[in-house]
Write a structure and sequence with these properties.
Length: 695
Amino acid sequence: MGHWRWKTSGVWGLMAAAVLAGLAQAQSGTVQTATRPLPPVYVPTPGFDAKDMDPSVDPCTDFYKFACGKYAANHPIPADAPMMDPFYEVFNINNQSLAKILKDVAAKTTGRTPEEQKIGDYYNACMDVDTIEKRGLAPIASYLAAIDGVHDKAQLAKVIGTLQRVNVDVFFGYGEQQDFKDATKQIASISQGGLGLPEKDYYLRTGEKDRTLLQQYDAHIAKMLTLAGTPADKAAQQASKVVALETALAKGSMSITDMRDPEKTYHLKPVAEFEHTLSGFEFGAFEREVHSPQVTELNDATPQFWPVLTQVLATTDLDTLQAYMRYHLLTAVASRLPKAFDEENFDFNARKLYGTQQPRSRDRRCSVWVDSAMGEALGKLWVEQYFSAESKAKMLQMVGDIEAAMERDIDTRDWMSAETKQQAKQKLHLVANKIGYPDKWRDYSTLEVRPEDAAGNLLRANEFENDRQLNKIGKPVDRGEWLMSPPTVNAYYDPSMNDINFPAGILQPAFYDKNASDAVNYGHIGSIIGHELTHGFDDEGRKFDGKGNLSDWWTAEDAKQYEQRGQCLVDEYSSFTAVDDVKLNGKLTLGENTADNGGLTLAFMAYMQRARMQHVDLTARQDGYTPAQHFFRGFAQNYCETAHPELVRTEVLSDPHSPDDLRVRGVLQNQPDFAAAFGCKKGSPMVPANSCRVW
């Protein structure tokens, strides 16, 4: 899709978030029958819930098991998910609420607003699996014809643009971003892409499980092509060639670790210069078909990729290139195609890749899809019913407390010079806090939605979003824009905007519980606020100034000191074994680990200051625990999780977040306040002799 906004990732794992939102594209369209049980009714979990704890475990030996030891027994993984954790619990509650809103709106026959008409008709079309089955491949016939109509490689640029406009990102990615060096500008950006697996190393690793998954991917491509009418023997041959094509692209791609570094992904250059690196590709034809403004410069995020892509396009036969594009079109739209496509897509992209055993109920999936297509139209209705002004006010207070704690913390850093401290505080004071939902709602008036055209609605929604994003190029930056819809259970920091963003969806129990104590809430949502704020100063965020520009505002000595402290975290987390014999990539997870460590420190400082202001007795016990113990238990229970090994393996290999048990262990063993709260002695498992108390 025409959107390339570089940002530091949110608090939740990318793979886990993709499982909830992205699995929507991989879920079966099977009609719900009388034999299939109705979806469960979900109820909120309170901020303090002792039943998931295992008090028989010594907190100084394994705090994760102490805080979460009974979570797996109390929260078994549903058949329609690869994991269960508090984020997924809240997702289920929010998704349940969205489904109710959509059913009510869809049932109305009169008095609907234009936005209610669109979300209601989108939902109705999605639920009408009989019509989806009858229409077959008709909704994508014009796109299949465009692919089949390529008789000369010179025509590729045009059809690639046509496909990318509807979010079929073949061969590479194209979109818009804020200029890293001038955050007031929005520019075009082009980058490596075109892979069907999560990242490049899925094609290159040689372990037994890796080879098996690649073979399954090959078979999946063949099955999708066969379902679309290609003879089985030919589809098998094409699939193997498609995998070879993607493997070649993978070899030419930057690693996911390097892609985190903005200095390695910023190469602003004239379009004419870029075109020389992609020989034989008519960029102007692509530009017109993808509906991009004509640009004179762009950010070439991955210069090393284009010689490889040029070679792939030159040496791959046209039949394979067409099969590659045909497969990516089919899998992108599979959720709105007949049952056979949807089930095959689910089997690989959900069951084999993540361990999910069965799809979610159709109404819950359709709710996700409406949120994806028109998140602010649906979110406006959801906010009116499920997010209070009181919650927003409390969040703003907590954010203020935690920002004040960061300013105090900066002043205490004896390794930072006065000059760098001043620059850091200047950036901190410029952070914009976006809580709950946008001040101005998005306008969907130009989006056409039809009540009988599920696949067409998806394609038109993708066109709408593509055109909206690309239309930003050359326009003033909208600093009020959100990258997540209000019901989303996540949060993020954007370095180009220098803002922290907390959708109303995450400001729900157990993360924020108005009936819980401040100690519990500062441990839960407060540590997440601190996490996002710390992203502004992690190994990526620290390279941007308060105005959102890529700028080195550190003294040379301070930068050296920072890198040394960061290396301690790299080494610490790289020593952790996540699953099987796979260890964490401490360099990949450095940003998130930094945010976890700094965020918890800031949240605890903020809570203690708030407790002193309110004259809280810090020695008093409630439910058997002191306020400080409630705080750390609240933090740890953010990350109680049980997951299928397929998901854990995928997360470890692809996600910049550490697995939940290891992120809790890694953070708390660096926290002297945690050790003091539970009376842990130095040398105990949770208080190792050499820890990274660096921030």
